[in-house]
Specification:
With about 130 residues, this protein is mostly helical. The protein folds into two domains: about 30 residues; about 100 residues. Helices cover about 90% and strands about 0% of the residues. It is built from five helices and no strands. Helix 1 crosses helix 2 and helix 3 runs antiparallel to helix 4. The mean pLDDT is about 80.
Length: about 130
């Protein structure tokens, strides 16, 4: 349901007051998305995984203790990477389900499913 002109004006005034009173908060809210947290952790997890892998490979011939430490860093980073990717995927699916594109995708897939069902039923009727 679209906003009335008065509601739009009131929201614009609130936004202007926010920019005037607390520009840092306004900038942070404008720059932060649903994906910001997950993407940041995903990047750090990939970096940690690569550092752990490099430590394991480079120290394997000299010290098994350091190589095992590199393996543990790599394992912890891999688990954090999986958790961040799962959270990112879940957030994306939830957002797609709420949007009109998600409904369109569902309708498209539903239409395809109905067409396939119809084709198979026609094929079975032709054999009889």
């Amino acid at each position: 349901m679209p906003l009335s002109e008065d509601e739009e004006r009131i929201l614009s005034e609130i936004e202007e007051q926010l920019y005037e009173t607390d520009p840092g908060l306004a900038r942070e809210v404008a720059e932060t998305t649903v994906y910001t947290y997950s993407l940041r952790h995903l990047k750090w997890s990939i970096l940690g995984f690569l550092v752990g892998l490099a430590a394991m490979v480079l120290s394997l011939s000299t010290s098994y203790v350091f190589a095992f430490g590199g393996f543990l860093v790599m394992m912890a980073s891999g688990l954090a990477l999986e958790r961040s990717a799962r959270h990112l995927g879940r957030t994306s699916l939830q957002q797609a389900a709420r949007s009109n594109r998600g409904a369109t995708l569902k309708n498209t897939l539903g239409g395809t499913r109905a067409k396939m069902r119809e084709r198979f039923q026609r094929g079975e009727q032709g054999r009889r």
